[in-house]
Amino acid sequence: MPDYGHELRFGSFITPINARPQQVVDLAVLSEDVGLDVVTFQDHPYQAGFLDTWTLLTWVAARTSRIHVSGNVLNLPMRPPALLARSVASLDLLSGDRAVLGLGTGGFWDAIAAMGGPRRTAAESVSALDEALDVIRGIWAGGDPGPLRLDGRFYQVGDVERGPSPAHEVPVWLGAYKPRMQRIIGRKADGWLPSLPWLKPGDLARGNRIIDEEATRAGRDPRDITRLLNVTPGDKAEDLARIAVEDGVSVFVVASDDPAELRRFAQSAAAEIRERVAEARSGHAAVSRRVVAFGGDPVPEGLAARALTPGDRGHARYTAGYFRGADPGLVLRPRTPAEVQQAVQYAARHRDVPLGLLSGGHGLSGRSLNDGGIVIALGALDDVTVLDGHRVRIGPGARWGDVARRLAPRGLAITAGDHGGVGVGGLATTGGIGWFVRQHGLTIDHIRSVDVVTASGDLVHASDDENPDLFWAMRGAGANFGVAVSFEIDAQPVSERVGFAMLTFVPDDVAAFLHGWGAAIENAHPSVTGTLMIGPARPGGPAAVQALVVVDSDDPDTVVERLTPLGDLAPLADQSIQLTPYSALLTLAPEDELQHGRGEPVSHAGLVRHLTGETTEAIADLLATNSRFILTIRSAGGAAANTSVEATAYAWRDANFLIAALGGGSPEYEERWRRLLPLFEGTYLSFETDTGPDALARAFPPAHLRRLRDLKRRWDPTGLFRDNFAIAPAAGAHTPTSDDTRR
User: Is the CB of residue 170 less than 8 Å from the CB of residue 101?
Assistant: First the structure.
C-alpha cells in the first residue's frame, strides 16, 4: 500500500491502574515532556482496579498544555453517544483543541451487562457504533439549524438541541479489525487504530484497501483518514519505519508503563523512524499526493496535504474569528518556514484575491480571515523554546497563554496582551500592551530578532544588526512587510504570584472619576497596570465601571498599599483581590475561545497622553448615547516611554492610555466618537476597524509613515501584504536584492 504522506506522530498507551493514580498522571505528563504527541488510556469501566478513563482524560488535560488525549479506545456500550459527544466537545473546548475520540464497539459482554450496560452480539455492536457516529456528529454540528433527530435500532434521539461544537474538528479514531468496521471507517471516521500484536501478516494492507475503497465510494479522499498503530517497546524502529512507508501508518502509540521505555521511544525510536521514513520518501518520486487547486492553479505538493477548501473537513474552523465571520477560498497551513515561503510565493500568483495571515484569530478587526481569498494559517508554527538566559524563541502560531505557562517555572514572563488565547504573531508585530506595560514596556520592546518571509518568498533574518530597517518596520507595522515565522524575545522576571484585583465602581460623576483614575495610574508604582471597562448607563441608573488591576508583587501588604489610591476614587459596589500566577491570569477565561463570530463589528481606538478633563468629558458624552458598546481604557505608558520614538514603527511612546470601544455603529455614536479624534495622539492598529487613509494617518506620525512607504517600496513593491492597514509603496520601483537582505 502507498505511503499516505502524513506527518509522523507518536504517543503513549498507559494502563489506568487506580492503585497508583499519581503515577498514571505522571506518565502522561512525562509523555508531554519527552515530546510525544498524544497520550492514550485503556477504557474498561467494569474493571474495579482501573481509574475511570473519562475522569482521567479530563485530569490529564488539565495537567498538560500541549499533548492530545484520547481513550484507546472508549467503550461505547458504557457511554451513551449523545452524552459522550458533549463530554468530548467540552473537553476539547476546555483543553484548547486537544481532545481525540478513540472509540470501540466494546467487548466482555458479561462484565458490561453486570454494570448495567447492554448485551450485544458482535454484529449488533458494529451496527450500534455506526448509529452512534451519526449521533456524535449531529451533536457536534452546533451551527446546523433545527434539533437533532435519529430513530435508530440502538439509539433514538428526539429533538435534541445540538452543541456544543468542539474547539476544532475532533478526530474520531476507531479500533477495528474486521471488514465491516473498516468500511465504517472509510465512510465516517478519521482514523484506524488497531494493535500490532493482534494483527496477522497482510492485515494492514487488507484493512487499508477496504478503508480506501469505501472512502472513495463515499466521496472521501482516503488520505483524509489517519492510520495509527498500537505497538510495544520491543518493536524495532526499522520495522515500524517500513510499516509507515508500506502501510501508511503515521501515528505509532507505544504501550508501556515504564518511564524509561517511554523516554527511549520518544527520543530514540521516534527519531530513527522519522529519519528512515524521510529517506524512503525522498526516493519515492511516484508517491501519490492530494491535488488541490485554487483558480486552476495547483497548490505545491508540500502544502497540498494540509490545504483546505470550502467543504473540506476542518475548513469550518477558518470561517470565523473571535468577532467576525469569513469564508476563505483556500486555507494553507504550513508547518515550517520553508512551507511558509511556498505559501507566500503561491499567494503572490493570486494578487486578485485577499490574503489573510492567521496566528490566533482573536483580533477585533478580523483581518486575518477573508471571503473568497487565501488564508495562510500559522497555527502549526507554535514552538516555544527557552534559549540561554532569559531569551525565548517563539513561533507566530503559539498563544500567549502557552508562552506564559512555559516561562512560569523559570520565574519569567513576557508582557503581552491580556488574554491567553491571543496569537503571538499578530500582537508581536503590532505593539503589545500587556499587564506589565508600565513596568516593562511593550512586547515589541523586548524582541531581539524576527525571521520574516518577505513578499518575494525569501526568508530573511531581521535584527539590529541584520536588515535593521525591516526590523524597525516589523515592530509596529509588521503585517505590511511579511510573515513572521519566528521571534526571539527577552523575557523578564516576574513574581511567583501577582496581585489581581477586580473592582466595580459606581461613580456619581463618570468624567471626574476617569480624570482621577488617570492621575492615580500615572502616579502609581510601575508594577501597577490597570484596565477599565465601561458600558452606557441604564436610564435612571448609575454607570458601573469595572476595573481590572495587576500588581507585580507577591506580598499582600504591598499589593493592598499600591491598590488603595485606586480603590479610594469612588464608591465600590464589589471588589475581589487575589494572588495568582501570571500564567493563570492569562487563562481566567477558556484559553481557546469558540471563535464563532459572524457579524461585522465596529471597533475604534485612540491613544492619549493624559485623561484630561476635556477627554473625560468627551468620553462621558459618548457613554450617554443609546448605542450598545463596551469602552475600555488600558494603561499604555510607563516603561513604554523608555524606548525612543524613533526606535520602532510604533511611535506613540508618550501615550499613557489606550481608549478603545467595541460596538456602537449608530450615526449618533459615530459622531460623538469623532469628537474624540482631535484629542488622540494616535491609533492602536489592532483595535481599529476603519481602514481608510485617515485611519492610517492616525496610526503613524508623518515621518514614520513616509519611512514605512519607502520600506514598502523596497520589501513589498506590489503590495502583496495589503489586507491589514495597507501602506502604499512610495512612488518609484524597487525590487529587493541580495544587497538589501545583507543590510
Answer: yes
- In this structure, the strands spanning 545-551 and 603-608 are unpaired
At 330-385, the pLDDT tens digits run: 999 998 999 999 999 999 999 999 999 999 877 777 788 999 999 999 988 988 99
- Measured from the Cβ of residue 444, the count of other Cβ atoms closer than 10 Å reads 26
Residue 719, exposed/middle/buried by CB under 10 A (0-12, 13-18, 19+)? middle
Whole-angstrom Cα Rg for the chain = 27
Among 543, 580, 701, 629, CA closest to 323 = 629
- Measured torsion, CA atoms of residues 31, 35, 38, 41, in degrees rounded to the nearest 10: -10
Alpha carbon distance 640, 532 (integer Å): 19
- Give first-to-last CA distance, the chain, whole Å: 51
Helix axes 270-282, 237-247, angle to 10 degrees: 40
Side-chain half-sphere exposure of 661, counting CA atoms within 13 A: 25
Concatenate the DSSP letters of all residues of 53-90 into one string. Answer: HHHHHHHHHHH-SS-EEEESSEEGGGS-HHHHHHHHHH
Helix or strand or coil: residue 158? strand
Q: How many helices (H) and strands (E) does the chain have?
A: 24, 30
* Cβ pair 743, 467 in contact under 8 A: yes
Bridge partners (DSSP) listed for residue 70 = 40
From the list 483, 196, 442, the residue with the least C-alpha distance to 338 is 483
pLDDT-derived band at 737, boundaries 50, 70, 90: very low
Contacts of 234 (CB under 8 A, 6+ apart): none
Type of residue at 732: G
In DSSP notation, 306-326 reads T-B-TTSTTGGGGGB-SSBB-
Structure confidence by residue, pLDDT tens digits, 647-683: 999 999 999 999 999 888 789 999 999 999 999 999 9
C-alpha grid cell, residue 682: 494616535
The phi, psi pair for 81, rounded to 5°, reads: -65, -35
Kindly report the number of other CB atoms within 10 A of residue 395's CB atom.
23
As a whole number of angstroms, the distance between CA 181 and CA 176 comes to 6
Threshold 0.70, pTM exceeds: no
Provide the sign of the torsion angle of the four alpha carbons 345, 705, 487, 595, taken in this order. Answer: negative
Quickly count: other Cβ atoms within 10 Å of residue 55's Cβ. 10
Sequence-distant contacts of 277-283: CB under 8 A, at least 24 apart: 277/3, 277/8, 277/241, 277/244, 277/245, 280/3, 280/241, 280/245, 281/3, 281/5, 281/245
Query: Cell numbers at residue 251, please?
Result: 501515528
Where does residue 625 rank: exposed (0-12), middle (13-18), buried (19+ CB within 10 A)? middle
Its sign, for the CA torsion 78, 83, 85, 90, is negative
Q: Are strands 374-377 and 330-332 parallel, antiparallel or unpaired?
A: parallel
DSSP assignment, residue 92?
H
d(CA 602, CA 691): 11
- Residue 346's SS3 state is helix
**Phi and psi (nearest 5°) for 613?**
-60, -40
Query: What is the C-alpha separation between 627 and 723, in angstroms, rounded?
Result: 29
Task: Give the model confidence (pLDDT) of 577-616 as tens digits.
Answer: 999 999 988 874 433 445 666 777 788 999 999 999 999 9
Contacts of 640 (CB under 8 A, 6+ apart): 433, 437, 438, 441, 442, 445, 653, 655
According to DSSP, the β-strands at 355-358 and 447-453 are: unpaired
Name residue 95's amino acid.
Answer: S
CA 508 from centroid of its chain's CA atoms: 41
What is the structure's pLDDT at 541? 62
User: What is the Cα–Cα distance from 411 to 429, expressed in whole angstroms?
Assistant: 25
